[in-house]
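dumping the sequnces here before i forget
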Amino acid sequence: MNLRDLRYLLAVLEHGHFGRAAEACGVSQPTLSVQLRKLEAELGVALLERGARGVAATAACQRLLPHVRAAVAEADAIQAQARSLRDPLSGPFRLGIIPTLAPYLLPRVLAALRTRLPSLDIEPWEDLTDSLMERLRAHDLEACVIATEPNEPDLLSRPLFAEPFLAALPPAHPLAGCATVAEEELARDILVLAEGHCLRDQALAICRTAASQPMRATSLVTLMHLVAAGYGTTLIPALAAAAAREMGLVLRPLATGASRTLRLVWRARSPHRTAAEAVAQSIIALTNREWQTSP
Amino acid sequence: MNLRDLRYLLAVLEHGHFGRAAEACGVSQPTLSVQLRKLEAELGVALLERGARGVAATAACQRLLPHVRAAVAEADAIQAQARSLRDPLSGPFRLGIIPTLAPYLLPRVLAALRTRLPSLDIEPWEDLTDSLMERLRAHDLEACVIATEPNEPDLLSRPLFAEPFLAALPPAHPLAGCATVAEEELARDILVLAEGHCLRDQALAICRTAASQPMRATSLVTLMHLVAAGYGTTLIPALAAAAAREMGLVLRPLATGASRTLRLVWRARSPHRTAAEAVAQSIIALTNREWQTSP
DNA sequence: CCTCTCCGATAGAGAAAATCTATGATGACA
DNA sequence: TGTCATCATAGATTTTCTCTATCGGAGAGG
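..and the predicted 3d for all of it:
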């Protein structure tokens, strides 16, 4: 069975006339005649009653008609939706982001991304790096923003921007008086996130220490509350600075100026790589401008 | 766009593998490869991401997928329903019947018709002859049972049985004592149905008179009530005899034994003519047996 | 590091299907 | 009883699909 023949059938019924239906379909009258006879033969059911004064649907045909119309309507829907998805910079784009970045980056770029890529339907998805990469491989995400290098042959990535780390201290902390903080000093009472957060590993690596804290924090906000309450110090990424300051923390640059590099990662063969590149480009442009206007 | 290609797409997504999908579809792997590329080109959208380890749907494809599945499901529904309609003695069969016959004939034959033609879905439609014929011509009915000859070139008909007329009298009526009633005598105070009922015209013709009654009755039951109440006499078809007797009317054969002939009528070119003939045949057989068992 | 294997893409030939033009058949209508 | 309108049919042509054979790339494993 063929959608074309179903359309022929609907046309003949609509016009009640093979010739006019053929014209409407842009084919010759014998074509309709042959194809509809073939359709009747295939279904084993007489669909049309050919009278001297026009053509009418048989009762059997009337029973089938709702399904015929539905099938044709679904086909039309496929084409209509495909038309709106035709632009590579359109359609759904599921974007994974790590939790230590999402709440601080998204408010800054999401609205602007919608303006720059109006047909791209960016659906943010927040999770830990490993989960994001797994979803990316499983085609459940089109791209993700992470702070590590993916190092997989199937994946491509592009650096977006470097985000400096800052020492976050309670106001009363001895180091709060220094202009910069040496990583080794921070190490003494540093608090880090729960396992799985890349920021945890990076903080420990930068401070050349291992974690031994009794508290478990699964978000930066929790961590900053702990610091504000005087349990210790921590290392936060620069984009979280405003939130930290609002909580009364003192922020100091690190002695080495260590930073993490955020990257956009996507599957090398993904048909959405064009969109991914465009998203990367846009985030780069937006964050560069941001750094300048509100450092 | 083609239903076949949509099925190919679903198969590839289901198997995640062109080769196995091709086998499932009963075609070669290049066929799927070519056809699906063509489908992607036609829609202008990348549907599949071909990876080293299998094939996956793109985000665009996932948006289209519900419509694709729906279109294929509707096509399957068409074929399934067509299969059940394949038998010419199956499917809906809208059968028109005149009001002076329907309530008396249908109870006698409908159940038996269902037994004899179990897949034929007989839907009775009661109306006056003219309306029935109009609906028949308009393909809103497959056939009708009427008491007149259609006399139209597009229509075929077949006599079902002859139904004698009986004089219906109130018990106190002078003619109630006679074994038979002469039509001229009945004519004096005969009551007939409203205009449009063929029985009205036939009764008046048989009695060689014209109607001049003040009362208007649109059903035999009403008419019989009028007779029972002593407003006059009437002529009823034999199948209504039992109902008339139950109302206390006296029934007498007519002197001439006049009767009406019921006919089944259908469109000469209707694809349901086989069913129509079968229905006619069945009614003939059933009523013949009926006459014998309960005259 | 190199081969081996697996998988999808491609090319070209062949088969199948759809379509066209021309014409036939049938019934309505004047 | 022609004439018109309408759908069906025939045969040629074009388009589309499908096949076999083969290519090329990417992992896997020695």
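Chain A is about 45% helix and 20% strand.
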